[in-house]
Structure formats: structure tokens, C-alpha cells
Amino acid sequence: MASFDAIDSVAVEPDYCHRCGAAVDAREYEGRTHPWCPDCDVLFSQCPIPGGHVVVRDDDSVLVLDEPIPQHEGVLSLPGGHAKPAERPRESVVRELEEETGLTADPEDLEFLTVVHSEHPDVAFYLLTYAVERSRVDGDLEPEFEDGDAYFAPVAELRANPDRIRDSDLDRIELAFGE
Ligand SMILES: [Zn+2]
């Protein structure tokens, strides 16, 4: 059995060690080849990144973002993001909701909906997802980006335009609407 000094969790497999900057080598561990730093004797193990999102329901519509940022690649998205240290998932979701849309909610009003495993070529995410009714949310919509938008889109319209939204987002919207 292989032994080494430590295993560090990483989101993307590295070319260089984040501890010392050395170019990584490779090492077998539990049947897989992992990046490994020969200087620090640290193995790098790729783990999904946790994130949180909220589906805000208003009758037959759902709150979506149209943000001019590269990772959204021209598709709509749900409000949410990553938790900060010492921040519970539902607290981080409520903070992101306010930053991205201007709407405020009580973290305890969020209903847990599901966790989605969203896989991409270099990285994977676990997306904790909550749902809340518009009537439990306060404030007026104020999108974070001047050239972006945050608005309630009819779910039927999203279903009819699958190129405008990721499957992992539409699936969660369907779940929140009990479809
Ligand atoms: Zn190192």
C-alpha cells in the first residue's frame, strides 16, 4: 500500500504543488493515478466543489439570472454560489440571493430540495438546492450587473427553450414545481 505524508483535496487536478510550487509527479493510490508532489510527499485528490442555489417560485414562474459572466456562457442560471468559511449552506444561499437579485429571505424559510452532482470536463460540483415561495421573500429585484438581469421566467418558457438553461438547473426547477 502506498504511503505519503498527506492527501490534499483539490477541485481541479494541479500541474504544480500548491504548498511548494514544484511540478507535480504522479503516484498510484487505490487503483487510480493521482498528481503527487515529490518534495512535500502530498497526494492530490480531486473532490467535487459544494455550492448552493435557491429556486424562488412565484405561481408558475421562477427567478432566474441572466448574468454577463463567462462561466454562464450565455445561459440563464439560478441564484446561488459558494459558501464562505463558517457559513451554513442556507445562509450562503440567502446572501447570494441578496447580492445577485436584491431580494432578501430568512435562511430558515428555505426548504431543502435536493443535491445535484453536476459534472464538467475538469471539475464537478455538488449543488445543494433549496426552494422558497416569492411570498416569503422581501424586496424589489435589483440585478447585480448593470448589463445583466434577474427576473421571474414562466417555467413553460424555460421548458420551451432548453438551449437557454442547463439541464441541471431545469431539472431542479421541475423538482421545485413538483413535475
Ligand atoms: Zn510540494
UniProtKB/TrEMBL annotation:
Cofactor field: Mg(2+)
Q: Which GO terms describe its molecular function?
A: hydrolase activity
Task: Please state every residue range assigned to the domain named Nudix hydrolase.
Answer: 47-178
Keywords (alphabetical) are:
Hydrolase
Supply the name of the protein: NUDIX hydrolase
From which organism does this entry originate? Halobacterium litoreum
Q: What is the lineage of its organism?
A: Archaea, Methanobacteriati, Methanobacteriota, Stenosarchaea group, Halobacteria
